[in-house]
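In this section we walk through a basic example: taking a raw amino acid sequence and producing a predicted 3D structure, encoded as discrete structure tokens. The instruction is simple. Fold the sequence below.
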Amino acid sequence: MMNTISSAFAANDQLTNLDPATYKYNIVLINQALGQLFVRLAQSSFDYDQYKVFCTLRTYAKIKQPREWSYFVTFREEEQESGTLTDPVVLMNKAVKKYNRCNQFTGEFQASSSSLEEIVRSMLTTMENKQKRLAASKPIKDAKDSKPDNAKKPKLLEDENKKKAPPFLTHTRKSAKNGGKPYEEDDTKTWNKNKYYFHVCPNHKGGKRWFQHTCGSCIACNKWKKKQCNNDDGSSVPKASAISEWTCEEKDHVEALLSRAYDLAKAHKNAAATQAYIAKAWTILREERR
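The resulting token sequence is shown next.
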């Protein structure tokens, strides 16, 4: 007799702690477990139908999802309170039908012991804790090492200036402060630690006159200078007809200038071509003097 009572109390404790997740929320298996525990309640003060209905609903109520199932349990609890539901077997049969109806489309009873609100709250708490851990794991900078944001601005301004073109790219004359004279070939300027050279050719795109390569290495400048050395008819020296009109005194003066120019042309980058032009002009001048 004592063993029977002890077993009944143990069964009652098991009914209280019965977890649907243990049976993977399968209502058929849960009902079988409830039936076995109800058998052990025999010959005890708990052996009556109302108590069995109460224990069954308490177990069903631990399944919070799907929501349709939760509504089913709530409605059955209202029936129990109103006295229209008193038979645990009828309750279990209705539960199996509901379980099958929820299961008929997906083939799997998507159940959970946590409600949707609880799941969302748990997710938010987890995210908040993760952010706190990340914030705590970041090294704390010393006041000495920390620099104001203003310290970064000069670097940013420097990078922006490097991307900008020099403001003097199209300048052909010096400022009035510096005399206002035209720039000469290979005059230099420095911008952002880069050296720029003045080009004499006015035909560069956009009217640019300053480049990082020298005028002597510029194809456009060399073509332009060669064209300037030629006459309208394509010859490389002054016309003989024009020279013949000079006086002897003028010719002597020009001859001296050509001789001096020939010597100075040795230092020119295109020395050979320049000296050739001068030599030919000198030859024509001498022929005119005969």
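Looking at the output, two observations stand out. The CA atoms of residues 28 and 188 lie 95 Å apart. Strands lie at 188-191, 194-198, 210-211. In the next section we compare this with other chains.
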